Amino acid sequence: MAEPKENPLMEKIVSLCKRRGFVYQSSEIYGGINGFWDYGPLGAELKRNVKELWWNTMTRQREDVVGLEATIIMSPEIWKASGHVSTFSDPMCDCLLTKKRFRADQVEPQSGVAYHYATATDQTSLQKLAELAGASKAAEAFISGKEIEILSALFNSVDNDHHPLLKQTFAEVGMDIENSAHALFNGLRGHLKSQGQKTIPFAVLLQPGKPPESARKIAKEFYAGRGIKDPVLLGEQTEKVENSQRFNPENGALLTDPRPFNLMFKTYVGPVESEDNVAYLRPETAQAIFAQFKNVLETSRQKVPFGIGQIGKAFRNEVTPRNYTFRSREFEQMELEFFIKPDEVIEAIHGNVVTVPETGHPGEPQPNWGWQAWHQYWVEERVRFYEGIGLSRETLGFHRQTAEELAHYARACVDILFKFPFSKRDEKGELKGEELEGIAARSDFDLSQHQRFSGKPMGVFDEELRAAWGKLSEEKKKELSDRYFANRKKYLVKMGVAEEQATKEATNDTNGLAKGQYIPHVIEPSAGVDRLILSLICNAYTEVSKTDEKGKTEINVVMKFHPRVAPIKVGVMPLLKNKPELVKKALEVRDILRPWMNVFYDDGGSIGRRYARQDEAGTPFCVTIDFDTLGEKPELLDTVTLRYRDDGKQERLKISELRDWLLSKIR
Ligand code: ATP
User: Fold this and answer.
1) DSSP state of 519
2) 279, 494, 562, 569 — which has fewest CB within 10 A?
3) Taking the model in full, what pTM does it have?
4) What's the CA dihedral at 415, 418, 422, 428 to 10 degrees?
5) H or E element that contains 461
């Protein structure tokens, strides 16, 4: 993915965001802090609208979802149970030259010629070597001459490459090439060793056609950075390289080997900075939902299937924050954990498990839906949400994770992507898109983990199951029990529980079915607020060119936000600032609308300029109070001009109808 500066459209979007107060760099006056972003006045409104719409759609407007607001810092045990302490890591590598950090799997693959260096030394060491090696004349000849590069090139390849110049020089000073060369290089190695100097291998990748000098320049910079003054490169060898992720795409320097890097921010709770007091800033909001599952179940009078939603901050010490706000270190998530019955329980109660096609919305939830139907339902519900705030299906992409990509406990995961200007393109040149949200069918993994780590039961009691189980044939009971047992045991063994113990625990779990007990499974739609904001901004950004009467063309930006998310819903303007009657009426209109929506009152500049300012802020409607409003044409008394942002069309509307008209558009 290209950085904004390499992508002209992104560059314009980033600059507009700053200029209009959507997004600022965090701590900008101190030079900024990488991976952290602030939202300005317009951005803050946009974000608030998005979160409120998610909350309303996902919780308030549903009977079967309730909300939660948990703390950011939780017991560190939670992150052990979730696997974040042991596995929440990305392989990362650093540029050996600049120390810049990369996620190993995200380094842009490079091809070209790699220049490898065995090590480097300084001029003085090389002189000393000459004496030690007993080849002083030859060595000096090289050291003082331009052949130094040849000498270094032969450091590692003395046996197979007798360069003519080397041969000639040795001959001139009357020395036998084979022996002298060996003496020279063995001497050098020995000398470096005796000085306690380790050889430091390094390499630089050059794009095809670039002169070797550029590689040598970078390599010298690298060795100079390691304290070798005026370094002489030794042992240069070249190698053709295809699609390698081992080199920094920006300067060609070798990267360190990938190392795991835990993405959780660590802190200490209380005044003592000891290992016992370590805590983490949550890397996702989901785990709090699992940890509070039983409390919510008991206090909300919900029954499975039901969900718990949460919006909140999450923190990840991303190796390479990039693409503007797309990959940040502090961000917000909107997550739903929707708890469902395991398929065996559905089958016990309803006699069958309904599955649905993998395309399209499957309709209203049914009691006999298994995980597959619920998963498809949530994918489509989430797409509807995006469509409802202006992201059409064409702007989205979908990625169904393959069996290799899926976590071991997951049954399925569909990522909803948005086609950002910086997204990669497929073979046909179409933008592929980047993840906005993942919808995962996570089995009963999360609650099971918390049950094991906390020692508290996470299962539920279901009277319907208990009653149904008693009526099943022995054969059916066995079939369902076997399946349930196999899944439970597979999970336990995978988590390192010894075979015998796993069999015992899985048997216990399976026996619970007859008593109406089971651990719920979960479908998790997990979305990032900031990525959604960025996609709404990219989607809204439109350039409109206007040519005036004199033939001068001007490009104006119109941010075509859906009215539901637009930061300002309506601009209210008196036609003229210096007519107190107009101003008074305009302020009255503003005050009528203000309790219901974000209104921007503007009386500065020509009406055209004021409209243009609102277009850039993405305000979908403007109302203008003019002389007709005051009754110049009696039939238009108390009406206003309403202007649409997207096509500039205007119409008259009664002030008394304005509020409800606007509300019908923005809700
Ligand atoms: P990625 O593969 O891009 O790192 P992920 O698969 O790790 O993302 P999840 O753990 O599934 O992401 O998190 C759920 C959602 O949270 C993502 O779909 C994304 O919208 C958001 N998110 C995750 N990491 C970041 C981040 N560093 N900055 C902004 N949003 C993020």
Assistant:
1) P
2) 494
3) 0.81
4) 80
5) strand 460-461
- Residue 236: per-residue pLDDT: 78
The pLDDT of residue 118 is 81
396 near 416, Cβ under 8 Å?
A: yes
Q: Is 45 in the pocket of ligand 1 (CB under 6 A)?
A: no
pLDDT at residue 200, rounded to an integer: 87
Select from 313, 385, 531 the residue to mutate for testing ligand 1; criterion: most ligand atoms less than 8 Å from CB.
531
Do 67 and 208 touch, CB atoms closer than 8 A? no
The pLDDT of residue 166 is 56
In the sheet where 621-625 sits, what is the strand order?
599-601, 570-574, 621-625, 639-644, 650-654
Residue bearing tokens 């003082």 = 144
> In terms of C-beta density within 10 A (0-12 exposed, 13-18 middle, 19 or more buried), how is residue 227 classed?
exposed
Q: Give dist(CA 583, CA 89) in Å, integer.
A: 59
In 147-259, which ranges are continuous DSSP H helix?
148-153, 164-172, 177-194, 212-225
Structure confidence at residue 169 (pLDDT): 58
- Which residue type sits at 87? T
Pair 522, 442: CB distance under 8 Å: yes
With CA atoms as reference, report the closest residue to 522 among 574, 460, 457.
460
pLDDT of residue 545: 93
Amino acid, single-letter form, for residue 373: A
- In the block, tokens 């030794």 appear at 234
CB of 57 shorter than 6 A to ligand 1: no
Residue with tokens 């020995």: 190
Helix (H), strand (E) at residue 582: helix 580-593
Count CA within 13 A, CB hemisphere, residue 625.
Answer: 26
Tokens 């240069």 -> residue: 236
Ranges of residues in the chain whose predicted pLDDT is under 70: 1-5, 125-197
376 lines ligand 1 (CB under 6 A): no
Pick from 20, 213, 54: nearest CA to 531:
54
List the structure tokens of 236.
């240069």
Cα-based distances in Å from 295 to 299, 301, 458, 651: 6, 10, 10, 54
Triad 99, 105, 106: Cα angle to 5°: 70
Report the distance separating Cα 468 and Cα 472, nearest Å.
7
Q: Is the shortest distance between the CB of 526 and ligand 1 below 6 Å?
A: yes
Strands (E), 248-291: 259-262, 266-268, 278-280
Strand-strand pairing, 570-574 and 599-601: parallel
Q: Whose CA is nearest to atom 31 of ligand 1?
A: 528
- 348 near 469, Cβ under 8 Å? yes
Peptide bond into 574 cis (omega under 30): no
Task: Check if 333 has its Cβ closer than 6 Å to any atom of ligand 1.
Answer: yes
Task: Please give the angle made by the CA atoms of 608, 612 and 617, to the nearest 5 degrees.
Answer: 150
Rounded to 5°, the CA angle 399-401-405 comes to 140
Contacting residues for 395 by C-beta, under 8 A, at least 6 apart: 418, 419, 535, 539
Give the CA-trace dihedral at 155, 157, 163, 165, to 10 degrees. Answer: 10
Residue 528 CA, closest ligand 1 atom number: 20
Q: Measuring CA to CA, which residue among 568, 587, 575, 582 is closest to residue 662? A: 568
- 400 Cα to the center of ligand 1, angstroms: 16
Question: Measured from the CB, is residue 315 less than 6 Å from ligand 1?
Answer: no
